[in-house]
Write a structure and sequence with these properties.
The structure holds two protein chains of two kinds.
Chain A lengths: L2 H11 L8 H13 L11 E2 L18 E4 L5 E7 L11 H8 L7 E5 L9 E5 L7 H7 L15 E12 L4 H10 L5 E5 L1 E14 L2 E9 L5 E4 L6 E7 L2 E8 L2 E8 L4 E8 L3 H15 L1
Parallel strand pairs in A: 1-5, 3-10
Antiparallel strand pairs in A: 2-3, 4-5, 4-7, 6-8, 8-9, 9-14, 11-12, 12-13, 13-14
Chain B lengths: L2 H12 L3 H23 L2 H17 L12 H31 L10 H5 L10 H12 L4 H8 L3 H18 L13
Helix pairs in contact in B: 1-2, 2-3, 2-4, 3-4, 4-7
The chains are: A alpha+beta, B mainly alpha.
Chain lengths: 290, 185
């Protein structure tokens, strides 16, 4: 009898147990995706492109939580200081740019650096495709959550825009192993970019001054971590039956707004802390959402 | 296995369709599990490894060649092959450590209780690579070409490896091969 026949006959009568790992696997995948915005002690976290928001506790905000509330008085957005679980990004901008040079616009890369990175944070970033015409950008973003007006007030000039797409989760184990195998160097690998748009960033000029707008799906933007020591002042201001959060840091102002239906996060930044900037940011936000 | 439908599901999953990926698990988990079970030797560990294989497959979806020849199951088994062999290496290192501490002889190829319980002791004396070849060729009915793509060994060397398995088993378990004896001189 040949080996094949012998094993064939044995395998035929073998009672192989049945398993069902589908639920466990999909749960693990879902957990890994949720971990994209948060830092974990175990292995890694992916940091997407984001803005840093600085805030100081004021009389307007809750003594315990800095943030925005809905009409029921529940916090829909909160700002917290960096902690053990959620610390500041570890990768310098020039290193990110160096690795972005390796890919084409529209592609994305995951970067791991072992230096000063005890929690093995991996940075994932998309190399954007820039649009310099509002109409072209509007039509490129095929997601009604990011619907933009066809025209803007005369003093608001669209300078450029880019989309943030859903990114694949990097193989963090592989990146760390690669780094270690090569003597602890900074490594990177391409990761998939999906068609789904999760956010947009735009730059406008209003009366000759630059304003940067960031709009994003709000599901992962309920809490933002930042260095609270750098924040000089904050306050909330009524806006469209809700409120916006104004943040002052160094020479920069930031306006933050969060909505529930749809679940969206908005941030507008401007250089300089002149009082009129506040009004211009709110005018810009109103022009974009109407 | 319907390679074409698996290929279609992999392409959909690669483009972000998680439901398609869930279907892939349903379609392939028993096949992958049987392979792992015969490699690792016990149900509990094999099940854990199957989980790891599918999670890793999800993370590696971007490497799946959607325009390729469409050997979808081969792609999945390649991931399974790497993870199983890595696991066996770890076990082997751990076992050597324990054996050294206990001043005992090393048991080389795993806690193969499944083989013992199911009259598959013939597999126990094989190295993991030899065992894998038998499992993929006989249980999963793969061709040498398909196995070559999975394990990264040429077809010629796989044939030689199988020949060595045959001779080894014939010498060690002659009773099982009554009617055909082939001794090499």
């Amino acid at each position: 009898m040949s080996i094949e026949k012998l094993f064939e006959s044995k395998f035929k009568v073998t009672e192989f147990p049945e398993i069902d790992v589908k639920e466990r696997v999909m749960k693990q995948i879902s957990l890994r995706k949720d971990q994209q915005q948060y830092k974990l002690k175990t292995k890694v976290t992916v940091i997407a492109v984001s803005t840093c928001i600085f805030l100081l506790l004021t009389g307007f905000a809750s003594a315990a939580i800095i943030g925005l509330k809905n009409q029921s008085g529940q916090f829909i957005f909160s700002l917290k200081g960096y902690d053990e679980e959620n610390s500041s990004p570890t990768l310098a901008e020039e290193i990110v740019q160096e690795h972005l040079e390796k890919i084409q616009p529209g592609e994305a890369i995951a970067i791991y650096s072992p230096y000063s990175n005890p929690d093995n944070v991996v940075t994932a970033q998309e190399k954007p495709i820039y649009y310099y015409e509002l109409e072209e950008f509007r039509t490129s973003v095929l997601d009604e959550r990011f619907f933009l007006p066809a025209t803007l007030p005369d003093n608001i000039i669209f300078e450029k825009g880019l989309s943030h797409h859903k990114l694949g989760y990097p193989d963090t184990t592989d990146l760390i192993n690669q780094s270690q195998a090569n003597g602890g160097v900074i490594v990177s690998e391409k990761i998939p970019v999906y068609e789904e748009v999760q956010g947009i960033t735009m730059e406008f000029t209003i009366d000759g001054e630059k304003y940067e707008v960031f709009m994003h799906d709000g599901s992962k933007w309920h809490t933002v971590y930042t260095d609270l020591k750098k924040v000089e002042d904050t306050r909330t201001i009524p806006f469209e039956n809700s409120e916006v959060l104004l943040v002052l840091r160094d020479s920069q102002q930031e306006l933050i707004w969060k909505t529930e239906q749809p679940d969206m996060f908005y941030s507008i930044k401007a250089q300089g802390n002149e009082a009129d900037k506040e009004l211009k940011m709110m005018t810009l936000l109103r022009a974009l959402i109407n | 296995m319907e390679n074409l439908s698996l290929h279609k599901l992999l392409v959909e999953a690669k483009h972000g369709n998680d439901q398609s990926f869930a279907q892939i698990i349903t379609l392939m988990q028993q096949h992958i599990f049987r392979y792992c079970l015969l490699m690792i030797g016990n149900k509990h560990d094999a099940e854990d490894i199957v989980q790891e294989i599918f999670v890793r497959a999800y993370l590696k979806l971007h490497t799946y060649d959607e325009k390729g020849k469409g050997n979808a199951s081969g792609w999945l088994f390649t991931i399974a092959h790497r993870i199983c062999l890595n696991d066996l290496k770890k076990r082997s290192r751990w076992r050597r450590l324990l054996a050294k501490a206990a001043n005992e002889e090393v048991v080389r190829y795993g806690d193969l209780e499944f083989m013992n319980d199911n009259d598959l002791s013939l597999l126990e004396s094989l190295t993991p690579k030899q065992r894998e070849l038998v499992v993929l060729k006989v249980l999963h009915e793969m061709s040498y070409e398909e196995i070559s793509e999975i394990v990264g060994v040429s077809v010629i060397n796989l044939r030689k490896r199988f020949e060595r398995v045959r001779k080894k088993l014939q010498m060690e378990h002659a009773d099982n091969f009554k009617g055909r004896v082939n001794y090499e001189h």
